[in-house]
Amino acid sequence: MDNYESFSITRRFFECGEFEFKINSNKLHTDKLVKNNLILLGKDYNKVGLILHREFVYGEGGQETETLLIKGVMLQGLAKRRIIIHDTGQEFDSCIGNQETIMKYFVNRNCVNPTDLNRRIDNLIVAVDKKRGENDRWRGAYESLDEKLKEIGEYSKLGWNIVLDHKQKKFIFDVMQGKNLTVNQNTNPPVIFRSDFNNIKTRHYTESIINSRNSLYIGSKEKLVLNLGDITGFERMETFLDSTSEEVEDIKKEGLVKLEEIKELKTFELEINPNSTFVYEKDYDLGDIVTIQDKKLKVTMDSRIVEIQEVYGNDGMKLKATFGTRIPSLLAVLKRMVK
Fold first, then answer.
1. If exposure means fewest CB atoms within 10 Å of the residue's CB, which of 115, 287, 298, 302 is most exposed?
2. Tell me, what's the pLDDT at 325?
3. Are residues 64 and 198 in the same domain?
4. Residues 61, 93: one domain?
5. Are residues 248 and 269 both part of a single domain?
6. 222 and 89: one domain?
7. HSE-up (13 A, CA, CB side) for residue 56
8. Residue 65: what are its φ and ψ, rounded to 5°?
9. 122 & 197 share domain
10. Looking at the structure, do residues 28 and 145 belong to the same domain, yes or no?
């Protein structure tokens, strides 16, 4: 559909993306915009949305003001529909191997080849394992699958996606790595965002330690097992994590993952000119590491593109990108407090 009023796509490297679509409800084929239907967002099969929400807004001006608002998630949202289920008699499910192997293991066990066939997602397959990432060990029990993939991904710096292969008529889960496009490497042509290159329209830089900690005590309330983090003195900020794990390596992994989650937040949010100097999805894309320079702030940052928002309206496309750490929503902060 290209006769929309507006729509936006938010792509995320470590977690599920989303979209919002607004169209006059009297336009052709709007009856097909119903929950659980798929919508191709543009001409690219890696941008397919799963409809979750529809609402009608009726104005006073008759049919011209009758608007249909559609919201949903990208195909990654299929992982939101499953939790990690372990075998009967076990306390959790675990996997040892490369980090990509582990991510694909949890998807295979809970979506593609689950013990309970009612849990299988038809036409979902897992791409060939390239064994990227370090050798590692992860476990899970009753956690949302997409949250576990996010946790492993942020720790290992590997993203993930589900795309539509229209020829095979399959959904394909795969792990993404991103390219190094910084000025300090010579393998790929570098990508630099700076205002005097005319490739930045607006910029928003944030440094924050409001919710961060850099020293972690982890164990049970009866027995302290480990202290992680080497900051001392005035700048040391401590917290405690209760762990039910019994193996020291598992406890250490929990602690390192938590420290990564609560580290200092540094993020650049830029509105980018998509066709100036560097072309979006040709010279750079989601997950790539690029260089951002801000002379006024005296900041130079090599950082990963963790989120890209494409906003389409009457004035064309606006492109907004988040580099570094995505600022957590209130819901994400509350979830973190509950853990």
1. 298
2. 78
3. no
4. no
5. no
6. no
7. 10
8. -110, 15
9. no
10. no
Residues β-bridged to residue 170: 165
Look at residues 252, 271, 269 and name the one whose alpha carbon lies nearest to residue 208.
Answer: 269
Q: Is 249 found in the same domain as 124?
A: no
Label residues 66-95 b or e (16+ Cβ within 10 Å = b).
bbbbbebbbbbbbbbebbbbbeeeeebbbb
DSSP 8-state symbol, 64:
G
d(CA 71, CA 89): 40
Tell me the C-alpha distance between 131 and 269, whole Å. Answer: 32
Cα 126 to Cα 64, 278, 287: the distances in Å are: 45, 32, 20
Please, what are the averages of pLDDT over each run of 10 residues along the chain (339 residues)?
84 97 89 93 85 89 82 97 94 95 98 97 98 95 96 96 94 97 94 89 91 92 84 96 86 91 91 88 96 87 95 89 73 46
Angle value at C-alpha 117, between 115 and 118, nearest 5 degrees:
125
Residues 274 and 251 in one domain: no
Q: What would you measure as the largest C-alpha separation in the chain, in angstroms?
A: 69
- What's residue 1's pLDDT? 64
Domain assignment present for 184: no
The per-residue b/e assignment along 261-299, b for 16 or more CB within 10 angstroms, e otherwise, is: bbeebbbbbbbbbbeeebebeeebbbbbbbbbbbeeeee
* Burial call 135-172: b when 16+ CB within 10 Å, e when fewer: ebebbbeeeebbbbbbbbbbbbbbbbbbbbeeeeeebb
- Number of domains observed in the structure of the chain: 4
- Point out the domain boundary residue: 225, 245, 261: 261
Q: Residue 254 carries which DSSP code? A: H
Q: Which domain holds residue 45?
A: 6-75
